[in-house]
Design a protein that fits this description.
The complex is a heterotrimer of chains A (382), B (166) and C (351). Chain A is α/β, with parallel strands linked by helices. In chain A, 33% of the residues lie in helices and 18% in strands. Chain A contains twelve helices and eleven strands. In chain A, the strands form two sheets. Chain A has a nine-stranded mixed beta sheet with strand order 3-2-4-7-1-8-11-10-9. A two-stranded antiparallel ribbon of chain A has the order 5-6. Chain A starts with a strand and ends with a strand. Chain B has two domains: 55 residues, no CATH class; 86 residues. Chain B is globular and about 70 Å long. The mean pLDDT of chain B is 92. Chain C has 351 residues and is α/β, with parallel strands linked by helices. In chain C, β5 and β6 form a beta hairpin. The relative contact order of chain C is 0.19. The chains are: A alpha/beta (382), B mainly beta (166), C alpha/beta (351). At the A-C interface, α2, β3, α3, β8 and α8 of A face α3, β3, α4, β8 and α10 of C. Bound molecules: zinc ion.
Amino acid sequence: MIQAGVIGVGQTKYDAKRRDVSMAGLVREAIDNAMLAANLEWDAIDAVILGKAPDMFEGVIMPELYLADAIGAVGKPVLRVHTAGSVGGSTAVIAASHVCSGQFKTVLTVTFEKQSESNATWALSPRYPYSPHINAGAGGYFAPFIREYIRRYEAPEHIGWKVAAKDRQNALKNPLAHLHIPGIDEKMVSDTPMLWEPLRYLESCPSSDGACAMVITAQDQVGSRNVAWIKGMAVRSEGTLSAGRDEVNPQAGIDCAKDIYNQAGIHNPFNEIDCAEIYVPFSWYEPMWLENLGFCDLGEGWKLTDKDATAIDGELPFNMSGGVLSSNPIGASGMIRFGEAALQVMGLAEDHQVEDAKVAMGHAYGGAAQFFAMWIVSSSLD
Amino acid sequence: MSAEDTPKDYSESPINLEYFYTAGSATTRFLNQVKEGNIVGQGCPKCKAVYVPPRGSCPRCGVATDIEVPLTDKGCIESFTVVHIPIPGNPIVPPYVCAMIRLDGANISFLHLIQDVEIENIRIGMRIQAVWKPKEEWTHSLENIKWFAPIDEPDVDVATLRFEES
Amino acid sequence: MKRVAIVGYAQHPILKNAGALNEVELIMPVVHQLFNDLGISQQDIDFTCSGSCDYLQGAAFAFVEGLSAIQTNPPIKESHVEMDAAWAMYESMLKIQMGDAETALIYGFGKSSPGDLDAIISLQMDPYYISPLWPDRVSLAALQARVLLDQNVITSEQMLASVIEARANSKNNKNALITDLIDESVYLKNAMVSSPLNKLDCPPISDGSSAMIIASEEKAYEFTDHPIWIEGIDHRIESSNLGSRNLATSNTLQASMNQLNLKNIKFDVAELHTQFSHELPFLKSLLNLQDVPTNLSGGPLVGNVMMCAGLDAIGKTYESLKDNQFTHGLAHATSGPCLQHNMLVHLEAQK
Ligand SMILES: [Zn+2]
């Protein structure tokens, strides 16, 4: 297979409302930063792969059509990916597939969401006839799974506060993060109002505007550039309402992680992965994904969190950038994880850099915890 | 500068689209029964899993669920959350309990409300039964059930609810 | 480059109004038909990819509902494009070429009947300057038709012929929605929708679904001795700014023709995703298909399932090559106003 690597990551400043830019301006901000980082001219781009979550977030249908000019796709192939919340990750995987297929040398991929353009909660849960009107948004949907996790493994309630505080402390080291909360700590999280028990206000992700772009190229195009080599990438899906599905520990997540570890030759992910950007939109998903992704046994995830293993200076740092809990432009949130993983192994993560990070993982999930996309990036090809 | 003098950097432009919504033929069969006060799940001919409310397929097997399986309105709470924030356009006043209801004999759960009980007494595994609206208000909707309320039966170990193919 | 072949295609009968059939109930029959034809199951599929559009039926995550039609236990490698399923096929082909899959299932579905398609498609345009004017899809197509007529690229007689031929050809397509034949007098009696397009120049509102299976070279021979190869494929998008495009031609289609080196290929058949009558003579001329039997299925004018019609053009070309002694077929898929985004697929039958 053709080896591919990330040679440029570009992001926007994330914020609740980026009223200073249009949708086109938002995606272009990320793209310009990625192109600058990759040190490439436009004619080097062979195709553009665009991802975002439901079109109803902005009220623009198939936005690759309107954005063709802004994303530099005119005269080129463009693909629009939509796999719910995992889309940022799956878009990166599909972009890399363009290169690995041998059809393309260098591709640009960009994902975005401008949630301020609409009412995001409404866009996610419109009211349908014939159904009881009890849909309480994404938090209301995931909170019962979290409660079941806590019950199964007798996890103490401060674990959620701890994750929420840790990710926001990391965000203070990332100037692009949406939420910068000075003095954030567990107490501050636990003092915020309950939204969807057991989730408090600061245990939930914000709604953000933002975009993330990457330039991915084939081995023979890299030259002397700093590169994050893609050592493994995969997607997995399972049906929403499927009898026997375990929403707390979805099989699709387990299988997807095993797939990328196999590709990357990783036998012990906890020891062999230096840091990870994992999709944690609600605090408790950190311990849940620690277990689901095979970093520890079932029931041990919250204990790893509790002993600071996932802190930026811990054994397995999680979400050094501040994670989804600090910036959440839904369609881009997955690609931010993938891009931040790349920045770590390229040594470009600045104040939130993990020292000597050589192997990093990017992860995204979506739908009813049923769509997964993941990759492993490394500073070296072998 | 007064507020009127500040250049406006956005404008609201509501988009209204009307749709003729159809529920799907499997859901239509189900709702026709709900209109009569009956809950009839649909079973998979291959793995025998019972779906309520049905969507027309068993994603385990990728086949149509064409076996009608009458169920009662009793079950248990598989998990739940207490919603403390109002949801735009949602008439229910918080705090309210939104639970994953697993009816007896069904192999998936659905979201509905729990009431007639102090919130702090609600537990995973608690036995519950539907509280129906007056018959004259019944329509083609699970809203015919006002909410589910606890019944005096021993709790269920939810680990035993996990569907295994026989 | 690894060769990829189409080994199966199935199409739901195109319906004016699928009524109570939901996503799952539309998708399952075509997928099952393919599995039965090939004697396989979802377990034999390495990658699954679909194309659909939430806004058509007004449901965020329509594709998530649709996935329930597919066996996902154990979990599958799966993805979705918010595009015509022709692009889902494209993505699947890349997965096979990179060695991540030997077989792929593609499906598309669309219901245009529940909403107001004209209003919905308006939301494809620039949200700040154009969409607020609610330009409907027929009026946008009419802009291009007018340019083509005024510049003598096509004639109104050719538009009439497109409509009459599409209906005559619908006899070849058991799934066609529009099958009644018409003559010039009937055509002329129809009121203009947006000049120069009258009602019969426009595709019917359609509901339906389609599915396709493609395979690597090695795997393809397990299904058939005569695979239909995807010999060449290329797609490109044009500017969103209609004012900056030359609507009398298509730079991107010309670029794709050069890229695929189509000039010296003698095509036996072509299926074009031409939704409006003027687009057929326009593209036939642009693609040098004047003497090539085109849209023998009737094409989109006799049934135009949104998010499937592009995949259907590929599928119908595949069927033509398979069922006749043809060698070369050309399929075209499009997206966006005035043929903004175009895909060309050169299919070749194994001799
Ligand atoms: Zn089954």
